[in-house]
Amino acid sequence: MSINFNNGKWLNAPVNASEDETSLTITTDAKTDFWRETHYGFTRDTGHFLGFSSADGFTATIRIQGEFRTLYDQAGLMVRIDEKRWVKTGVEFTDGELFLSTVITDGKSDWSVSQPFKELEDFYIRITLAKGAMRIQASRDGSFWPLLRLAPFPIADRYEVGPTACTPERSGLTVRFSEFEIGPATTKDLHDLT
Question: pTM score > 0.85 for this model?
């Protein structure tokens, strides 16, 4: 089911955002981030997130477009229970390149990056969450979906799901989100990449 961006609830709304039924464009504020403790020793819960409520057993897909140029520039999808249990996945600029990045947080954050394709200024992210298992996939064209991560994630009555963007080292990243859908969890085999 297509999601109307007007119906979301902001956590840390950016100063500049424009949403309508089919798209959301934001420009990030300074020093925005989501992270908990691991390696860096700090906790940040200041990133931009537009959440939509969902029960367990869903697949969420979104298209992300932007020009990511500064260390830790990032945008993608977030699934959130509360400030200690959340996932953010999408593009992140690190070590001079764009990577597909996933941070899973259950008390403390972990971080993984991969690069199944390098064209990451216009791409799709898909998250399937059902019965404590989260499948994260990405696509260049919305048709072929390489797996990024399969991980456990806490079971909850409700989740908040939606677009997120952060710029820990600056402000002024403009990101456009579109083609956002949340529907029943896919029943496709793990190795079916369509």
Answer: yes
